[in-house]
């Protein structure tokens, strides 16, 4: 930490503590999500392999489509949960081995660190506490960031390590110390070791170095060599920590990447079921980003080119590079595979705020505009809590998104636990049967006392059906539900339906 940034330690502590406390709210408000079991349980298996000194490629082929770093992290959380009773969930809703609440706290810690690193990036490029604070705040209140901040997912460590890579790339560009260099090497290894799309940030490092070279006469051949071999050293580090690559690094990486880029699901996009087109991610950006942030982003680009052109160009590069994934075969799950764009996006939005402040002379009007802007964003977050995966702005009417199947809704099982909790308590001594028309099936929670699951629709007293099931399975029709009445709907933002709870009508 440089001398200037040391003076910001109180601010850094405050940002981290605030983020940690806020993100810790509601960890138990949502049930299991799609990938949580894969990431956490596979990580636990990896740690078991290491403990048993099993480094065979056949064992490590388990979930080999993604590198292991995130799985090591969440696997540690699973190990601690199983061995420390106080960390275990006591609600009874989670099936045995599917309690991920403490693992989610790991996500909260990493997400809070990411907000902290974004503050440091903002300070590194501007030397302004205001800009740094805005960068961190605008990341924090972005629903796309909030979507993954509380759940077990590759996106959380990916964004953290991506932010660290950007920070130390900036530091190394300005000061060619071994400390900064090895920080770049390690952060890049962790980034790519989480998911391969981290490779898309590599051009940022080299463009920074070329910019430094064109503006400094102290560049040496050693500096050239170190920059060239940086990704090689990161690759060596990845091989060391991933036993799957030990027997054959090159073929192992190729097999892993080939599996990771395989298109294994189709989803609805703009009303059609099929493989996503190249403009898939850009479309999701336009409908999942609050309109206020989109306006600040545009203002930040236009205004930034007039006053801080160099910084905005680098931030725009950071924003655009992740969208190179638009030209890869695998495109799915909204903005999940391009979430690294949030780094550059937050920086540009911060300069958008500075630009808005700059054109207004009246301090009172500045305060009103800023307060109104952030109040609208906070209200939006509050209305969609805790299911930010299904946040959509009003760029397209949300009714059309649902009725015309324009964009994904409830694809990770959102709302199912909330629906189970809404089942009316049966009378003493009675047992009610529940039929789950839910997709994905593996996220279905345990039922409370007085309820049992049935696979026979004709015997059901209650039916739970989610939007994802309606769209992709549809084995329960409207005619099947004629003998039932809706008693509860789980919605997002009071508009988008996730799950409906039906009760059988009395005969």
UniProtKB/TrEMBL annotation:
<dbReference type="InterPro" id="IPR003342">
    <property type="entry name" value="ArnT-like_N"/>
</dbReference>
<feature type="transmembrane region" description="Helical">
    <location>
        <begin position="278"/>
        <end position="305"/>
    </location>
</feature>
<dbReference type="InterPro" id="IPR050297">
    <property type="entry name" value="LipidA_mod_glycosyltrf_83"/>
</dbReference>
<feature type="transmembrane region" description="Helical">
    <location>
        <begin position="311"/>
        <end position="330"/>
    </location>
</feature>
<protein>
    <recommendedName>
        <fullName>ArnT-like N-terminal domain-containing protein</fullName>
    </recommendedName>
</protein>
<feature type="domain" description="ArnT-like N-terminal">
    <location>
        <begin position="65"/>
        <end position="241"/>
    </location>
</feature>
<feature type="transmembrane region" description="Helical">
    <location>
        <begin position="9"/>
        <end position="27"/>
    </location>
</feature>
<keyword id="KW-1003">Cell membrane</keyword>
<dbReference type="GO" id="GO:0009103">
    <property type="term" value="P:lipopolysaccharide biosynthetic process"/>
</dbReference>
<dbReference type="Pfam" id="PF02366">
    <property type="entry name" value="PMT"/>
</dbReference>
<feature type="transmembrane region" description="Helical">
    <location>
        <begin position="228"/>
        <end position="246"/>
    </location>
</feature>
<feature type="transmembrane region" description="Helical">
    <location>
        <begin position="337"/>
        <end position="357"/>
    </location>
</feature>
<keyword id="KW-0812">Transmembrane</keyword>
<dbReference type="GO" id="GO:0000030">
    <property type="term" value="F:mannosyltransferase activity"/>
</dbReference>
<keyword id="KW-1133">Transmembrane helix</keyword>
<feature type="transmembrane region" description="Helical">
    <location>
        <begin position="182"/>
        <end position="208"/>
    </location>
</feature>
<dbReference type="GO" id="GO:0016763">
    <property type="term" value="F:pentosyltransferase activity"/>
</dbReference>
<keyword id="KW-0328">Glycosyltransferase</keyword>
<dbReference type="GO" id="GO:0006493">
    <property type="term" value="P:protein O-linked glycosylation"/>
</dbReference>
<feature type="transmembrane region" description="Helical">
    <location>
        <begin position="151"/>
        <end position="170"/>
    </location>
</feature>
<keyword id="KW-0808">Transferase</keyword>
<keyword id="KW-0472">Membrane</keyword>
<feature type="transmembrane region" description="Helical">
    <location>
        <begin position="128"/>
        <end position="145"/>
    </location>
</feature>
<feature type="transmembrane region" description="Helical">
    <location>
        <begin position="363"/>
        <end position="382"/>
    </location>
</feature>
<feature type="transmembrane region" description="Helical">
    <location>
        <begin position="101"/>
        <end position="121"/>
    </location>
</feature>
<dbReference type="GO" id="GO:0005886">
    <property type="term" value="C:plasma membrane"/>
</dbReference>
